[in-house]
Design goal:
It is globular, with a radius of gyration of 17 Å. A five-stranded mixed β-sheet has the order 1-5-2-4-3. It is of the alpha+beta class.
């Protein structure tokens, strides 16, 4: 197995801008350090991430799409490999609203560290279960799911274990896991009209 280097650390969130003059939208990615497959906090982190931005009714979609009208949608997801993991928040927002959207997004990251509600946790668990059922609905989905577990050195039973652990997540565990969404630990990449963004 190829060793994975340690995650680099930094004091303030670096911002990288890829200039596309005249762009009507800014594509942004926020990437945070995460947890590897099999980590005890994996299910709690997944549940909290779904509540943050994993469904149409998630917090970020309600705030940035429904309330503010900055975007057609925001997506937050966790990615786990056998030795490393990360979390990603991504969206396309109106160029003229780039700064307001980033401020509101960062504020929501601070707020969700205080925890989520019972209803949000319930919806997150149901959403995770539904995604797994849908993945099993095609041969391609089944192959992808089990190949990911195999590449991490896990048995096919890992899927059942993941579903069981997700049913056991609690509000305190989710609250602790969401502490990893620290804005100062993010790497921020913006693709759009640099002059308008700045």
């Amino acid at each position: 197995m190829v060793p994975v280097p340690a995650v680099p650390t930094h004091q303030n969130a670096p911002i990288y801008i890829v200039d596309r003059p005249g762009s009507s939208q800014t594509v942004f990615y926020l990437i945070f350090p995460g947890v590897s497959q099999g980590n005890p906090a994996e299910s709690d982190l997944k549940a909290g991430t779904i509540a943050l931005g994993g469904t149409f009714t998630s917090r970020l979609n309600q705030l940035l799409r429904e309330q503010k009208g900055y975007t057609y949608g925001v997506k937050a997801r966790t990615v786990q490999y056998s030795q490393v993991g990360y979390q990603v928040i991504s969206s396309r927002i109106r160029t003229d609203a780039t700064d307001e959207a980033m401020v509101d997004l960062m504020s929501e990251l601070k707020r969700i560290q205080e925890g989520i509600t019972e209803e949000e946790a319930r919806k997150a668990v149901l959403s995770f279960q539904q995604d797994q059922v849908e993945a099993m609905g095609s041969r391609e989905g089944m192959a992808l799911t089990f190949s990911e577990y195999h590449s991490a050195g896990m048995s096919p039973e890992a899927l059942g274990n993941a579903l069981g652990k997700m049913r056991e997540v609690g509000l305190e565990g989710i609250k602790a896991a969401m502490k990893t969404y620290l804005p100062e630990q993010a790497v921020i990449v913006l693709v759009g009209d640099r002059q308008a963004i700045e």
